[in-house]
Hints:
The complex is a heterodimer.
Chain A: E1 3-5, E2 9-13, E3 18-25, E4 32-37, E5 44-49, E6 53-57, E7 60-65, E8 70-75, E9 84-91, E10 97-99, E11 103-108
Parallel strand pairs in A: 2-11
Antiparallel strand pairs in A: 1-3, 3-8, 4-5, 4-9, 6-7, 7-8, 9-10, 9-11
Chain B: E1 4-7, E2 10-13, E3 19-25, E4 31-38, E5 42-49, E6 56-57, E7 64-66, E8 76-78, E9 87-94, E10 104-105, E11 109-113
Parallel strand pairs in B: 2-11
Antiparallel strand pairs in B: 1-3, 3-8, 4-5, 4-9, 5-6, 7-8, 9-10, 9-11
Amino acid sequence: GQNIDQPTEMTATEGAIVQINCTYQTSGFNGLFWYQQHAGEAPTFLSYNVLDGLEEKGRFSSFLSRSKGYSYLLLKELQMKDSASYLCAVRDGDYKLSFGAGTTVTVRA
Amino acid sequence: IAGITQAPTSQILAAGRRMTLRCTQDMRHNAMYWYRQDLGLGLRLIHYSNTAGTTGKGEVPDGYSVSRANTDDFPLTLASAVPSQTSVYFCASSVEGGTTDTQYFGPGTRLTVL
């Protein structure tokens, strides 16, 4: 099976920056996704990386290093509404999407 | 445009009963997926369909069946529910299967099997 690891929980202060790391070992690689999931809701798409480097989308950025099997999601200028779970997902060589268990981020005032 | 809808929102079911979870999308996506989400385990793929008329098994298919009679609908059936099938079930779709297309998720069905 696939192996995708990310921290279980992180806490940060409103206005701060938080970096959520994800490491993976998969059979083949066809891209890495980050999803946001608020409690009791569906996951919603945040970002997609297939090439090495940084993708920036407003307050959110995602980085990928394929040689290291590593990605991070960077959340800047944290707001209370950013309190959610963040899911790292890797599309393997068969184009199946495998998810990490998710990182719960709590933003405190 | 509704996107993806799932029904019911939640359900409590006695063990041994048959249950069908419904999923409908109006985006004309060719590929659809069923996942279950359990605490500490993340989302796991149960079954998928890359196009109407075809289905495939995911990581945890045992005890579940699916059908894809048309593009829009992808029901998931539990033939004889067991307590270990207590979970939150998410349906998802993407433009095409077997590609890097983004998957979009429905609101989920919370199922409790007693």
